[in-house]
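User: Teach me something about this protein's shape.
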Amino acid sequence: MMTSSNRTQLLIGAVALISGAIALVGQAGLPDRVALSGDSVAPEIGALAPLFASTTITGERIDLADLHGKPVIINFWATWCQPCLVEMPELEMLYQQYHQGGLHILAINLGEAPEVIEEWDRAMGLSFDLVLDEDGHIAALYRLRGQPSTYLITPEGTIDDIFYGPTTQDTLRAALAPYLS
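Assistant: First, the predicted structure itself:
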């Protein structure tokens, strides 16, 4: 039979043990999910956007790090993607409205030949950057699940929103509102 004194001692011991565990975790920090699973995870809302550098179809070098301080939309697309065909005019209208205020749109093509992209670009009349991802490196950084996929990057470089599938300028405008002048 447990006495009141034994219960008190047990309770004090449990509290001390829990306090010690909390202090240890506080000192060492929680383990990273990447380290736990052995795999890297897809970028998440609130996480820093994976940095990359590539070239546009016009040969200009683009480095995401150089766009720090400005809102950025990263859109993964392909010329054969029918939802992308619908979405691109929406992105163009948004870009026309907000690029003077600092908005950048990086439309990352998934490994297609520059000639194919250029022909498509001429037909669409796009004015934002069409970025080449010839070896799939950028798609791998973002753990791309399909296209179109769109990431809203804050001026501080964190992911504020992710849209899987086609999105509209109204949806993006609402998400961008805190970052546009």
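Now, about its shape. The CA atoms of residues 79 and 120 lie 7 Å apart. The chain has a mean pLDDT of 84. If you'd like, I can walk through any region in more detail.
User: That's plenty for now, thanks!
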